Structures are given as structure tokens and as C-alpha cells.
Amino acid sequence: MWQYVFPFRRVEQWEAGLYYVLGRYWRTVGPGCWPLTPYFMDVVPVSMVPSIHGTALQTITLRDGLTLTYSATATVQVENAATATNAVDKWPETTMELIAGLLSERLADVDPKRFDPARNKRDRLLEELREEIDTATKVFGVRVRSLRFNNFALGVRTYRLMSERATLKDVT
User: Fold this and answer.
1) How far apart are CA 77 and CA 100, in angstroms?
2) pTM of the predicted model, to two decimals?
3) Which one, out of 152, 158, 162, 165, has a CA that is 20 to 30 A from the CA of 50?
């Protein structure tokens, strides 16, 4: 309620403010106190500092039939606040879903010898994956600064509670 009485919005030092007039993006503003007309204008602050987000635990089947269970954390940073806010819905969730999907897709096709941490092959693989993910997220103004695996277990026995053989006929 207070936002309709107080005709200013504050944008902190670590944020960028997106100025909207009648619901349309007008411009990006920096830190400070910005005037607005209630009901007609708004300033939406977007954090521009790096933040760490994690994927859920993922289990995939590799091309040699083994299973790989992993989870990852990514340090992400908004580079273009207007694109990150206006091009996708909820950029943190979108970024992490994209990261989980790309990691699962790429790791399923990788030669299992590259998973060996003793030969530093996993570090090179991780950097290649980070670069590919960074390229994919640049489209909506978010950069992936680093990528790390929290959990990386090869050959773990997995029990699935739901059948993967469901078809459209089974659902209807």
C-alpha cells in the first residue's frame, strides 16, 4: 500500500532499476531515488551482483548404459537487466532449468573416460560445458561465470518409481 502513497522508488548501489511507464519498459536507471506517478509509472530493481544457484539432483543414463547422478551450482550474473527481466519469465529459474537440461544432454553423450578427476579431464569438460551454457544464457542477458559439480557419482543404482514407457494412449 505504501508504494501508492510514496512517489519515489529507491534503487540500491548493487541494482539497476527498470523504469516502466504505463506497463511498458522505458529505460534502465542506476542507483538513486527515482520519482514516479503512482498507478502510471514503476521502477523495478534488479540485482546486478553475481549469485549462486543450484540444480536439483539429476540422474541420467550414459551412452554406455551406466547411470550418472549429479547436481551442480552455477555463479550467474545479470549483465542486461532489461533483457533478463523482459525476455524471459523469472530469469533465475529459467537459467537453472536451461543449465540442468544442457548438462544432462551433453553429459549423456560424453565419453565416460572424461569423467576421471585424476587426469584433469573433468575440469576441461566442466569448462567446455560452462562456455556452452554461457553462450545459451547470453541471449537473455545472463552470464554464467562459473560452474561446479556438487555431486558427481557414476554407476549408482537408481530405482525409478514411475514408468518411462507412458504413451499418449496411456494418459487419455
Assistant:
1) 17
2) 0.80
3) 152
Indicate whether 70 pLDDT > 70. yes
Largest CA distance in the chain: 63
Give 35-67 as a DSSP string. Answer: E--TTTEEEEEEE-S-EEEEPPPEEEE-TTS-E
Please compute the mean of the pLDDT values over residues 41-62 and round it to a whole number.
92
Q: Residue 147 above 60 pLDDT?
A: yes
Please provide the CATH number assigned to the domain covering 51-154. 3.30.479.30
Asked if pLDDT for residue 4 goes beyond 70, the answer is no
Q: Which residue has the higher pLDDT, 106 or 7?
A: 106
Please state, in angstroms and rounded to a whole number, the distance separating the CA atoms of residues 84 and 90: 8
- Domain spans in the chain, listed from the N-terminal domain onward: 2-47, 51-154
CA atoms of 29 and 112, how far apart (whole Å)? 48
For position 162, what pLDDT does the model report?
63
Three-state secondary-structure class, residue 28:
strand
Give me the mean pLDDT over the 154-169 stretch: 64
CB atoms within 10 A of CB 168: 6
Total Cβ atoms within 10 A of residue 165:
6
Cα 41 from chain centre = 29
- Within a 10 A sphere around the Cβ of 85, how many other Cβ atoms? 21
